[in-house]
Automatic annotation (TrEMBL):
Name recorded for this polypeptide: Chromosomal replication initiator protein DnaA
Spans annotated as Domain I, interacts with DnaA modulators: 1-80
Residues binding ATP, per UniProt: G149, G151, K152, T153
GO molecular function, one term: lipid binding
Segments of this protein annotated with the region Domain IV, binds dsDNA: 326-448
Domain Chromosomal replication initiator DnaA C-terminal, residue spans: 355-424
Domain AAA+ ATPase positions: 138-263
Domain observations: Domain I is involved in oligomerization and binding regulators, domain II is flexibile and of varying length in different bacteria, domain III forms the AAA+ region, while domain IV binds dsDNA.
Segments traversing the membrane: none
PROSITE patterns xrefs: DNAA
Function, in words: Plays an essential role in the initiation and regulation of chromosomal replication. ATP-DnaA binds to the origin of replication (oriC) to initiate formation of the DNA replication initiation complex once per cell cycle. Binds the DnaA box (a 9 base pair repeat at the origin) and separates the double-stranded (ds)DNA. Forms a right-handed helical filament on oriC DNA; dsDNA binds to the exterior of the filament while single-stranded (ss)DNA is stabiized in the filament's interior.
Length: 448
């Protein structure tokens, strides 16, 4: 909901409120305009200081109305139209007075709104949003690490976009390590003044984000310059954000003083995507790429599991499916047969058509029981657990009906299957370790 829509709803509620005088409403409320300044900060623009005095008693009512529609509290103030105009003028002057940097600046497509949050990345996501909202106030530096393709660059670019949009008075720069090294090499071929000028240029920024910091390792001269800049940002409470494929403790080739400073702020990781997050990302990418065909449950789960180690691979696989779909518009559904054909050049060994026996074999191996035992009537703990989990996985991955599953497990009735599935779901909700075991087994089943 944008501020215009929000203000219309608030005016509707104020128009019927007993505490709002009709004259006050007509003269001061209807002519006011709500403006969103920041993520949780709103100003109500009114005609004059006198108007502010008249409607100030309504401030609590307006704030409560905003909370009702948005679901959370916000910072709220009154401001005259003249004050707002002057503030905007000063802001434009500040932005215009910034020196032009030789570093390329651009708008990135990565935003917090199109980042899929899940168990594997929620801490890094939350920390990044906090930094973007209040750069330089806490966590200097923010250090995000994890394997390639899990969303580190997305978060850094989202911070950059958010700060440049909401706080244009701050000088903000996003750099790859490669571009930083290139600039350092350029100035090292020049004189001392060029090096000092380069350091001063970087130190003039308020927010500096460097992607793939690990590539600065073993670059002695670059490390020296970087250390000077690093110190300047920390001493002046200016924001630094780094990404790396390794945690600070595992970074080799950096001066110990730099490693120590990495640890001064907040270090957070992005792990390999959990199954649920991978599914959400896969679904989102299918929607973005506008695939017209439906995608079967098994095919969706396969893609989410097989490519969970790299979001770029998920996007690449969906692009391949999208291209195939354009050429085969008569096909209504993309199922595992289509997936097997499309990705046979990737790894045919991993793309066997899923079946119930495979599920039972893999679960049985985990619990040390045979497929025959899973299909039988024995109720010892290991066999019962393997049977229940196998039923759950057949329903979850293969999307078989309850009666079908009962038949596939030695003629069990559908009530037995329901109880088994519910038991596994409850365990997953209360036991994180068990949930991890289930996800590992899913991965095995879908990649065998």
């Amino acid at each position: 909901m944008n501020e215009t829509e929000l203000w219309l709803k608030i005016k509707e509620s104020l128009s019927t409120s007993e505490i709002v005088d009709e004259e006050v409403y007509n003269d001061y409320i209807t002519t006011a305009k709500l403006i969103k300044n920041d993520q949780d900060e709103y100003n109500l623009i009114v005609k004059s200081q006198f108007a502010i005095r008249v409607i100030t008693p309504l401030k609590d009512v307006i704030v409560k109305a905003i909370k009702k529609h948005l679901g959370h509290l916000v910072i709220f103030n009154f401001i005259t139209a003249a004050q707002y105009k002057e503030n905007q003028k000063q802001l434009k002057e500040v932005v215009a007075s910034k020196p032009v940097s030789p570093f390329a600046t651009k708008k990135y497509s990565a935003m917090f709104e199109n980042f899929i949050e899940g168990e594997s990345n929620k801490q890094a996501f939350l920390a990044s949003k906090m930094i973007a909202h209040n750069p330089g106030k806490q966590y200097i530096p923010l250090f995000i690490y994890g394997d390639s393709g899990l969303g580190k660059t997305h978060l850094l670019q989202a911070i950059y976009n958010e700060v440049t949009d909401k706080k244009p008075e701050l000088k903000t720069l996003f750099l790859t390590s490669e571009s930083l090294i290139k600039r350092v090499v350029d100035v090292l071929y020049k004189d001392h003044d060029a090096i000092e000028s380069f350091k001063e240029e970087l130190m003039s920024y308020d927010v500096l984000l460097i992607d793939d910091i690990q590539f600065l390792a073993k670059k002695e001269k670059t490390n020296e310059i970087f250390f000077t800049i690093f110190n300047h940002f920390i001493e002046n409470n200016k924001q630094l954000v780094f990404s790396s494929d390794k945690s600070p403790d595992n970074l080799n080739g950096f001066d110990k003083r730099i490693i120590t400073r990495f640890d001064m702020g907040l270090t957070t990781s992005i792990k390999t995507l959990d199954f649920e997050t991978a599914v959400l990302i896969t679904k989102a990418e299918i929607k973005i790429q506008g695939i017209r065909q439906s995608i079967s449950y098994e095919a969706l789960n396969y893609l989410a599991t097989y490519y969970a180690d790299d979001v770029r691979k998920i996007k690449g696989s969906i692009s391949k499916i999208s291209f195939w779909g354009i050429q085969n518009e008569v096909v209504k559904e993309i199922d595992m047969d289509v997936i097997s054909t499309l990705f046979k050049d990737v790894s045919t060994a991993n793309l066997g058509i899923l079946n119930v026996k495979k599920v039972k074999e893999i679960v049985g191996e985990k619990y040390g029981v045979s497929v025959k035992s899973i299909d039988g009537k024995a109720r010892t703990a290991n066999i019962a657990n393997a049977r229940h989990l196998s039923m759950y996985l057949v329903k979850n991955i293969l999307n078989h009906s309850l009666s079908q599953i009962g038949t596939e497990f030695g003629g069990k009735d559908h009530t037995t299957v329901i109880n088994a599935v519910n038991k596994i779901e409850n365990l997953m909700n209360t036991d994180k370790n068990f949930k991890l075991v289930v996800e590992v087994l899913k991965t095995k089943i879908l990649s065998k």
